[in-house]
Amino acid sequence: MSIASSSSGSISAPVLSYDDAISTVERWAEALADSAESHPPSTPVPTCPGWDLAKLLRHTGRVHRHVTGLVRLRISSPPDHDTVAINQPGSEADQSAWTAWFCDGAAQLIAELRAAQPTDAMWSWGVDQRVSFWARRMAHETVIHAVDGHLATNTGFRIEPAVAIDGLDEYLENLAYLRAFATPETPFVGSGTVHLHATDPDLADGLGEWMIEFDAAGYRFEHGHGKGDVAVRAPAETLELLALGRRTLGGDRDDGGQAGDSDKGDSIQEAGRADIEVFGNPEVFQRWLAGAAFR
Q: What is the pTM of this model?
């Protein structure tokens, strides 16, 4: 999987190709199915409070089948609630039946996306009004919920840098659109600037760096290097999981002042995670995370 440089500005050219996005759905759907099949369905999912593995699998399966129907129809306007039939097992079905249903739905989604062209016009809730939006969205929806399954079952995983970088890009690009129909847990408090810097080796120039500015009116971001109130350096996987609430900094302290990601100034590291470095004021990063979270 190649990692190409992404364009600057608020809307990027995806790091993942259309085919890579579909392959990502396939690979990570299998990982989620494995977690659900090999562990009790009642296993709690700490990163999705109130959920267990059964609910995690069923939620992701419903999303897959819903999007399959939308792509099949090339829907041109926001769908009604009953536009797509989900056809799920009865609530009392055993876990094996639900896992088979999930796998079949993922296979249908993959087949439908492969039969389509990424440039085919259709409705989406984001800026990209083409099938390509849904391939990319389903890639990252599947990755993050498969990660939830791994974290719930304490099994290892690795998100490839290209997938993680594109996932963080997609999140930042779509966050403003999410606010049209989802409720933030809290508004952004105060203002600040955050620099994220992926430390994976062999990234193309300009790839894996983001500058984010936020205030009460919202947020703006661009790709590139700069100084902010706080800078976080970590592998792309860790940056994505931090942004999506699947990891925490830990051990935060307020250093104050402007932050870059050179050796000027102090840094902190998460307890037990030597791959995370924070320069500047970590409270600014926490306020960004709080304003970017949704119920």
A: 0.88
